[in-house]
Amino acid sequence: MNILLVYAHPEPQSLNGSLKDFAVRHLEASGHHVQVSDLYAMRWKPTLDADDSLAPRGAERFDPSADSKHAFDNGLQSPDIAAEQAKLLWADAVILQFPLWWFSLPAILKGWVDRVYACGFAYGVGEHSDARWGERYGEGTLAGKRAMLVVTTGGWDSHYGPRGINGPIDDLLFPIQHGILYYPGFDVLPPFVAYRTGRTDAARYAALCEQLGERLDTLFSTAPIAFRRQNGGAYEIPALTLRPEIAPQRTGFAAHIQRPDEARGDSGERR
Questions:
Q1: Contacts for 65-68: CB closer than 8 Å, 24+ residues apart
Q2: Based on CB atoms within 10 Å of each CB, which residue in 31, 178, 206, 252 is the most buried?
Q3: Residue 269: is its pLDDT beyond 60?
Q4: Are strands 241-242 and 2-7 parallel, antiparallel or unpaired?
Q5: Claim to verify: residue 231 and residue 220 sit in the same structural domain
Q6: Residue 243 belongs to what domain range?
C-alpha cells in the first residue's frame, strides 16, 4: 500500500525524528511504499497568501478561498502545493506526525494544511443545497483513504485523562481528527500518543517502537473512529445540527461520535 507520512519536527535527532525513521523502516520492511514530507527539511512555506497562485485572478483584494479555488481550477497553484496534493491522491493512508505544542499542531504543519487543502480540492466540494451541504465529514476528495496521528507530548498520560488538567487527549485532538482529517473524507484511526517524552530512556524507546510497530501493522485493519457522516441522516440540513432523537443527552465533541449501541441502525443514520 502507499503511505504518506507528513512530519513536523525541527530536530532530526529528536525522539520524533527517531520514531519517524523507525516508522519508515518498519513500513517499508512490511512491503509498503512510503513517501515522507519532512516539512522543516523542505523549508515549507506555512503562510497562505497571494503568492500561492502563479497568476492572480485580477481582483482588488486577496480572498483566501476564491484565490485558492481559482488557482486550483486553472492549474495555477504553486508547485509545492500541487506536489503535496499529488502525494495525498497517491496515498492509501496518511500519517501526520508532530509534537503537541501549545495544545495543537506546530505552526508549520498547520500551514501545510492551510495551503494544501485548497478550495476545490479539500473543501468547497460537491452539491450545496437544502438536501446536501457539500461532500465533507465522511465524504470528499480523500474518501476511502485512512489517516492516523502520531503525537508526542511532554505531559504525563494522567495530565490528558478524563479529569486531567490539560483536558482529555481525545478532546484536544478532535479538531484535527474530525476537522482536518474526517472533513475531506479520511477514515480516521485512533491516535498513537507518546506521553512524558522527556523521560524516554533506551528501554522506554524500545517499548514505544514496539507499540508503534503494532499500530502500523494494523493500519489497514483497525476500526476507525465512528464519526457521524454529515449526509448520513443524523444531521438536519442545512442547519447541520444533530436531529433531536440522535444522542439527545449528549453535547459537544462526544455527540458526533456514534456509540457501539447505535450500530444496529437506531442512530437514524442511513447505511
A1: 65/119, 65/124, 66/119, 68/118, 68/119, 68/120
A2: 178
A3: no
A4: unpaired
A5: no
A6: 226-271
Length of the chain, in residues: 271
Number of separate domains in the chain = 2
One domain for residues 241 and 182? no
Same domain, 143 and 127: yes
E-strand spans in 100-257?
A: 146-152, 187-188, 192-194, 235-236, 241-242
Query: Residue 147's beta-bridge partner residues?
Result: 94, 188
Residues 158, 266, single domain; the answer is no
| 211-247 pLDDT tens trace | 999 999 999 999 999 999 999 999 999 999 999 999 9
% of the chain with per-residue pLDDT over 90: 88
Are 213 and 149 within one domain?
yes
Parallel, antiparallel or unpaired: strands 241-242 and 235-236: antiparallel
* Predicted local confidence at residue 263, as pLDDT: 55
Q: 3-class SS at 254?
A: helix
Q: Which amino acid, 38? A: D
Task: Note whether 46 and 155 are same-domain residues.
Answer: yes
Indicate the SS3 state at residue 257: strand
Full-prediction pTM beyond 0.90?
yes
Last residue of a domain, one of 207, 224, 241: 224
Q: Which three cell numbers stand for residue 204?
A: 522506554
On whether both 268 and 220 belong to a single domain, the answer is no
**Cis amide linkage into residue 184, ω under 30° from 0:** no
What does the pLDDT look like over 113-125, one tens digit per residue? 999 999 999 999 9
Whether residue 87 contacts residue 97, with contact meaning beta carbons closer than 8 Å, is answered with no
Whole-angstrom distance between the N-terminal and C-terminal Cα of the chain?
27
